[in-house]
Amino acid sequence: MEDETGHDEIDILEYLGQDSWDAWTTNHYGILAKNKGSHGVPTKNYEAWSQAFHVYEVEWSPTHISWYIDGKKVFTSTQGQELDSMHHRPMFPILETQVGDGWVGDVDYSKRLTKQDSNYLIDWIRVYQTEDAPITRFDNLDTPNESTPYHIRPIVKTDGLTFVSHGEQQYENKNNFFYGGQPRYENSRLYVKEGSENQSLIYKVNGVKDVHLTTYYQTLSDVSQYNSRAWANEGASIRSTVVQKDSLDFKIETSLNGKDWTPYQSLRVVDNFVDAYPAYARTTFDAYDLPSGTKYVKVIFPNYKGAMYTLRNGSVQSVKHTDIQLAKVTFLTDNIIDKSDLEALKNKVEALEKDSYISGMEKLEQVLKQAKNVLSLSTATQEDIDDVTKQLEEALGQLIEKKVFMLIDKKVTVTTAKTEKTDDLSFVVKDATEELEKQFDKQVDIYDMYFVSNKTKEKVSFEQEAHVSVMKKDDRKVEQVYFLNGDKKEPIPFTVTDKEILFTVKHFSHYAVVYNEGKTKKPFAIKSEITKSNTVSMSSSLLKNKVSEERKLPKTNEEKSYVGVLIGSLLLGLGCFVFKVKDNRI
After folding, report:
1. Residue of 580 and 346 predicted with greater confidence
2. Which of 192, 352, 417, 454 is in the most buried spot, having the most CB atoms within 10 Å?
3. Percent of the chain predicted with pLDDT > 70
4. Structure confidence by residue, pLDDT tens digits, 17-48
């Protein structure tokens, strides 16, 4: 396994072809060319280890590292702790075959000393941890995906950040962003867009203990000197000559609620061995022992504008937006499942009054059922909890309250849900033309109803379910209500009270109320009038009186009594819909 900083390495097994009776187990620690060290031993076997399958195992704890072969402990190391080495840094496993060079020795070009066409066979690999051990989670900053038990994504990413993977320019080329004895190239990074400032990422991390930032800084273009301890040309980071060194440092802030933030004051900076230009210099920022109860972590990018650094030749350079890049964010978290946010949200949803909303409640109840199921599962992961919490929050935000928008003409009242669009509307009712009246051989009242914008005074389309109430003039019996679509007449359900004719529409145009009587009476005239909206609220006592009054009202025409019963039932709901305005703000 190799450390995320590129210094440390835990060799579970090292096996040399020219020494097939020794299985090496080694702990490497420290920084290349600074304080690099190692501690390891070979374990001998009476026959070559390659003659059979064996189980090679390492147990890694905060205080020691132990190696096992075929279940038997063969070595334990505690060295490197004083260097903040393998005991506190994330590691990743690698499987590697080194053909030659270095400790292995030169390649057998003669093909006489090394068996040719050898197989490297691995039966299985397993990674596990104890139930109470902390969990490492990381964000590679690559293509956005959902969070998993080991991957995590930011819940907030500011707009002034640019993703880069690989390209021809020096600041794009992944070959300039690497680390480790067996190089891993960083092909997913973020930098600040030119001209942008105050950029950050925010993560929600339950039980977070530590944070590690893997970052890269531009190197001085005129520094390159061979370092024999590293077997490589060494360079220098722009951080080494910037006027205010900490001005280019990343910052971390923590929060208990995602709103109130506290700067983390004890950030440790680890500078790795710096390969010479055009390579970027790798710097790790470590935040250990975050405040208890921390749930949110903000990673703040440095503001590069105005920062200056000096080359070895004395020339002063301006820091560019591409000179500082973030490659990975790693968290160490307690292995706990936090259900508190979901529990609180569930209780909030359950306390809602369903009848106070005109839409979104069905979807919300579906997600609520899913949330209850997840909460009841002993096997639910933190990702399961976070995912259904997010779904429940989104469904809650899509609820539309029954705020009423009412438009009143002398003869017609329209009631519908109040929205942003309705705030700009006025209601118009006009007399119908004689041409429309000629379509009927019975008495008829025709209503030309539409909306105009209060701002432009122009007619506007309005397609939203609304409830229409037309005043009755006398005791004439209503036969049918029609929507007039050109020369077509479409019957629509209606109901009749002592004083009103009630029906529901989804768009506004010409509507006709036809009576049983022949044309012996002239339909009453409708005065054209523009009316503005009113938002209506009634007390619960008035509402009860209204509903009680509706229950005593007569039914519609007998031959369509089944429609009347249905619509009458709906109108009882309409009474609540129109008049019971309850502002349950969330």
Report:
1. 346
2. 192
3. 80
4. 778 899 999 888 878 888 888 888 999 999 99
CA distance 476 to 524: 12
Which residues of 50-134 form beta strands (DSSP E)?
Answer: 56-60, 65-69, 72-77, 91-92
Contact between 298 and 170 (Cβ < 8 Å): no
Beta strands in 17-99 (DSSP E): 19-29, 37-44, 56-60, 65-69, 72-77, 91-92
CA distance linking residue 18 with residue 41, whole number of Å = 17
Chain mean pLDDT for the chain: 80
Lookup result for tokens 């704890």: 61
- pLDDT over 80 (residue 334): yes
| 98 token code pair | 């080194």
Rounded Cα gap, residues 211 and 330, in angstroms: 6
Q: Are 66 and 58 in contact (CB under 8 A)?
A: yes
Look up the pTM and report it: 0.62
Q: Are 329 and 213 a contacting pair, CB within 8 Å?
A: yes
Q: Please determine, for residue 418, whether its predicted confidence score (pLDDT) is greater than 70.
A: yes
Alpha carbons within 13 angstroms on the beta-carbon side of residue 137 total 25
User: In the prediction, which pLDDT does 75 show?
Assistant: 94
Number of residues that this document lists for the chain:
586
Quote the tokens at residue 170: 């020096």
- Write out the H or E segment, with its range, that includes residue 83: none
In the 3-class helix/strand/coil scheme, how is 141-161 assigned residue by residue?
Answer: CCCCCCCCCCECCCCEECCCE
pLDDT of 68 strictly over 50: yes
* Residue 333 CB contacts under 8 Å (≥ 6 apart), including other chains: 134, 135, 136, 137, 205, 206, 207, 208, 209
Q: Are 395 and 363 in contact (CB under 8 A)?
A: yes
Dist CA 280 CA 237 (whole Å) = 8
248-281 in b/e burial notation, b at 16+ Cβ within 10 A?
bbbbbbbbeeeeebeebeebeeeebbbbbbebbb
Q: Could you give the count of Cα atoms lying within 13 Å of 472 in the half-sphere of its Cβ? A: 15
Prior bond to 134 cis, omega within 30? no
- Tell which residue, 301, 319, 285, has the closest CA to residue 197: 301
Q: Give the integer Cα–Cα distance in Å for 381 and 414.
A: 51
Q: How far is 331 from 251, CA to CA, in rounded Å?
A: 15
Predicted local confidence at residue 378, as pLDDT: 78
- The one-character DSSP state at 67 is E
Collapsed DSSP state (helix, strand, coil) of residue 450: strand
